[in-house]
């Protein structure tokens, strides 16, 4: 998958077709055969711009809200429990709407679906600050997150379709843009809000402009209905044998690992600025601390997958990342303000379990078809697992009146995450088990 693509890129050769080649024995992840005339250079540049702008829009809807969560709660008179529901909406939308993305892409084409996703992000971000009610705010947030969900799933498809010989480099490019958008929204939302007169509505709504910019590059691709190998997407799964993936212990371990790391990530994005603010850190500094945590994913997203791909067992990396998380949570509990920068860095390292999970998904199957099914199962199941975490943190925060119990919950969840990651990191494939 995403994490293993840089290594695969140097090994793959163009697929050669002959009279013995059938749909059943063409690998799902094989590049398209060479054609006499490829896409025009200007079109490839346009797709590149579209990928980067889309990736920049895949997290600001979440991290900009985290930076202004206290102001939003006060402005809409939200309780802590309702705010916990709000922080649980992203994984719910990713689980529900992400499943729809492949079917939508087969019918309308991946470019059209990503374009529609950018429209949904823009509309949701523009509407939600001004609806005036908690229910409306949640609905508009869900609209934006729906666009993020389908776009996030289809980004690798777009890369495979247009850049079959540069999968690794293009994946790295949009991964870096995604991490940049995540940290940028966390860092500058509060300063922008102050510059716009102190209104949290303007501070949140301004991010719709970035979404609007991302619509334009996809408009010429709306009618392109080809999939990852340059053929109609509906033809790509013909002849691929089915795997009973629910019988695989490795698949379930990966789903649990993915879900628990997503739980930690969304708790961090939704609540970490509030933890620092309640400890006496200014709103602007709290946003920068979240940005530091998110920015750790930029360099480590390249380092961790490469290291993991060279290891037969990824358990040691799981343990190192989990240990960083446990130390970071201990620091938040004991000295949240005094060691704020250290805890932000450590939790940023722990959150890099995400690229590790993607790498292991790519390594736990022998076939492209198996990787696709494993990815769909692990991510959809994982996001469902992650839904209660941010909500439970909000409930504990409201009823305990402090952050002791919520932080203890975060640290406690790190233990089963490490266990699931060790099991998922063993050198075996789902074909061996299913």
Proportion of beta-strand residues: under 5%
Shape: globular
Question: What share of residues is helical?
Answer: over 70%
- In the CATH hierarchy, what is the class of the largest domain? Mainly Alpha
Order of helices and strands: HHHHHHHHHHHHHHHHHHHH
Helix/strand class: mainly alpha
What's the average pLDDT? 80
Structure, described:
This protein has helices spanning 5-9, 41-56, 60-67, 69-76, 80-108, 110-127, 134-162, 167-195, 200-205, 208-215, 249-278, 283-295, 297-309, 315-334, 340-350, 353-363, 368-386, 388-400, 404-424, 430-433. The protein has 434 residues and is mainly alpha-helical. It folds into two domains: 1-6 and 42-224, Up-down Bundle (Growth Hormone, Chain: A); 243-434, Growth Hormone, Chain: A. Helix 5 (80-108) runs antiparallel to helix 6 (110-127), helix 6 (110-127) packs antiparallel against helix 7 (134-162) and helix 6 (110-127) packs antiparallel against helix 10.
